[in-house]
Amino acid sequence: MTSATHSSLFPQAPDSADAVLDGLDPEQREVATALHGPVCVLAGAGTGKTRAITHRIAYGVRSGILPPAGVMAVTFTNRAAAEMRGRLRELGVSSVQARTFHAAALRQLQHFWPRAVGGPYPPRLVERKVQLVAEAAARSGLRLDRNELRDVTGEIEWAKVTQTVPADYPAAVAKSHREPPRDPAEIAQIYRTYEQLKQDRVVIDFEDVLLLMVGVLQYREDIAQEIRRQYQHFVVDEYQDVSPLQQRLLDLWLGDRDSLCVVGDASQTIYSFTGATPDYLLDFRTRHPNATLVKLVRDYRSTPQVVHLANGLLNQAKGRAADHRLELVSQRPAGPEPVYTEYGDEPAEAEGVAQRIRDLVRSGVPAGEIAILYRINAQSEIYEQALADVGVPYQLRGAERFFERPEVREALTALGGASLAGRNDALLDDADVPSQVRAVLGTKGWTAVPPTGSGAVRDRWESLAAVVRLAEDFVQARPDAGLSDLVAELRAREAAQHAPTVQGVTLASLHAAKGLEWDAVFVVGLTEGMLPITYAKTDEQIEEERRLLYVGVTRARQHLGLSWSLSRSPGGRANRRPSHFLNGLRPGSGSRSARVAGGGAGGIERGPAARKRTRRGPVLCRVCGKTLTEAGEMKLMRCEDCPSDMDEGLYERLRDWRAHQARELGMPPYVVFTDKTLMAIAEAVPSCGPELAVIAGVGARKLDRFGTDVLAICAGEEPGGADGTGS
Q: Is the pTM of this model over 0.85?
């Protein structure tokens, strides 16, 4: 049995109802022939759920049990609805409605509006509500930047699909453990004003389409009965993603009937932040005790090796969705084991993944059948560059290219202006290039501490933080470079990556990868703080992060790579930990020695360490006397592998002092001293000015300004103030 697609672009439709069932496996056939009463299909990733439900509709119609005009198939994206319509046409059924919830509701609202409300048409639909939200904020006396507007708009959408009115929004946020982008009372006020503006201007938004149709069906029984006479049978795909508002509409479409088939997988619930909940799927048999339950677990997409890892991820899951997980059984021949790779730093990880992809392409795997998946879109830039460096074309899905993002364009403009204006700030005269970049981008929204929660504000911060990291990596590669050199490098990258690309490797976030599949998938950046993401705090949020990784893993048909890096940049401290989601799954994850073992099939490979950097001069390791060539090592004045004698307590006292100085002076902490410089001070513990002066990153001006304080802290004394004079 297979769930392979038709080999012809114009396949012949089956010549009979029974022929529709040909090629279905036993469980798919059970779905296709269960045409009476409520049916719940729990369908794991790659198990052919769309095939099963389209054949079910086709078999019901062609056997005369279901009237074609009386079937409504509902899904969540236009792409999925179009795919369903296409498959139904291939099966000889072209008159069945297959639409998204919004499209179906809008069609009905337009048809019944004259009778239900009066007038030829419903109010004009506002496709982009951001401008109206901005006006509502202004009328509420609140000023929001572009990213805050996107986030507040998302909160209003969430409130409406969860049927939360403005007055109840603060309480609903607290109950759901959401982290709103503004004070909940402020968002409630904006939400209230937004609704009033729409009413004044006689316009509606997409959520109103569902709300209005719910209202029509609730209060006009004649219209509800007419729709129920039209549609006798409903099929809902991706039922784990239904919102309370969509469920309310579905209930009203059905009335007191139970001719309903739902299909979903609670283990693929990854959109709860939009109001989606798997509860309706998990409670289906409670609401419909006589429902037929069919489980699809035969995985036709992935090899046994990939499926084994996917099952292992869910076996560690907790919570209600985990209690209903499906154990997949691969139907494909054996393939290569998933490859786990540990790298020294992020650039090395990107280079290593790009080289593996280049080798796959050379071996015959089409670039269009390969994907790199990551947690947040800001991670894309380093992979864009790495693929460009090895000559492999790529395309981004669900996001703008890194250098096309508005915040990145603003950052480049600001940095270009700073480089042309020269160093007019005396305090920055001795600042290194990354510190200058942080200072400039501090005016554009970058902060040393990331904003809490997710959303557009966080996305903007991540993009700016990526520019800061680029600056740090660039200066490590070219220690003598200035700000103008960095700007030139960024402009060169921008120009190169704006070049048109042919069909190539897909770069996508894990959310954007839902519903897609490739021959080879590389899931990257698998460290604590990235997956699970740092702002996932509650058990429910962390479990959704696990499901996100599960979705990523199950996108792979044959080749699967999972990787992480121990530090962010070359020469950095190797203090990162692989995602705990991999514990017990990656070979030897209970043993430290396994992390550095050579990789056999399924083993952990050691990726390249921090890349070699340009020699700055004869700097010797103060521990072993070896000549140092790495920028990070030269700053610490010791080999990375040599034992550190850093005084941790002193390091923390220096960090606290630096934070105080930064607040007093109104600058980023890095402008006072970088982390690396503080580490070097805590290791050297200088007792006089000359000993402090030889530490990289101090310099004459900083020695004069901060020297006395630093030496006092090193001596275990209280610092005398920001303006001390060292000697």
A: no
